[in-house]
């Protein structure tokens, strides 16, 4: 059985969801204060790439057990996380099965979205095999 996980990520936090047949766990990792990247305030003294990398490293560790990973978020943080994974955790890259733009859903909305997404992925994978 596949262990699915999803991460909803923005510049302030990462909400990680582990989805299995009978369970659904959520945890939240908070970004360091300096990770926030606002387009009008991207000066070198405001952006701290080492803190961003530490944050992304923690997120990647929280997703390590997943066979399939969905990355969600409202803006560019999800893309920055993908770039981090490609550069620093290449073994995780093939396990990322989707990247979706999702604004700021409630926990229930996000849980439903993730479950529906993986039901579709599993059906598609079953028809290919």
List keywords for this structure.
129 residues, alpha/beta, Nucleotidyltransferase, domain 5, 5-stranded mixed sheet, 37% helix
* Cα-based radius of gyration, to the nearest Å: 15 Å
| CATH topology heading | Nucleotidyltransferase, domain 5
Distance between the termini: 15 Å
**Tally of distinct domains:** 1
Structure, described:
This protein is α/β, with parallel strands linked by helices and 129 residues long. It has a single domain (4-128), classed as eRF1 domain 2 (Nucleotidyltransferase, domain 5, 2-Layer Sandwich), CATH 3.30.420. Helix content is 37%, strand content 25%. It has three helices and five strands. It has helices spanning 49-62, 77-88, 107-128; strands at 4-9, 13-19, 24-30, 68-73, 96-101. Strands 3-2-1-4-5 form a five-stranded mixed β-sheet, with helices on both faces. Strand 1 (4-9) and strand 2 (13-19) form a beta hairpin. It is globular and about 40 Å long. The two termini are 15 Å apart. The mean pLDDT is 83.
Topology:
Blueprint lengths: L3 E6 L3 E7 L4 E7 L18 H14 L5 E6 L3 H12 L7 E6 L5 H22 L1
Parallel strand pairs: 1-4, 4-5
Antiparallel strand pairs: 1-2, 2-3
Summarize the entry for a quick read.
With 129 residues, this protein is an alpha/beta fold. 37% of the residues lie in helices and 25% in strands. α1 packs across α2.
């Amino acid at each position: 059985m596949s262990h699915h996980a999803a991460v909803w990520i923005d510049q302030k936090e990462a909400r990680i969801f582990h989805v299995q047949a009978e369970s659904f766990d959520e945890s939240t990792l908070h970004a360091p204060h300096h990770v926030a990247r606002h387009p009008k305030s991207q000066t070198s003294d405001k952006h701290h790439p080492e803190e961003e990398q530490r944050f992304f490293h923690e997120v990647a560790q929280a997703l390590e057990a997943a066979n399939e990973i969905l990355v969600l978020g409202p803006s560019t943080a999800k893309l920055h996380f993908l770039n981090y994974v490609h550069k620093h955790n290449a073994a995780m890259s093939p396990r990322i099965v989707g990247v979706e733009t999702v604004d700021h859903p409630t926990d229930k909305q996000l849980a439903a979205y993730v479950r529906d997404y993986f039901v579709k992925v599993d059906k598609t994978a079953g028809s290919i095999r």
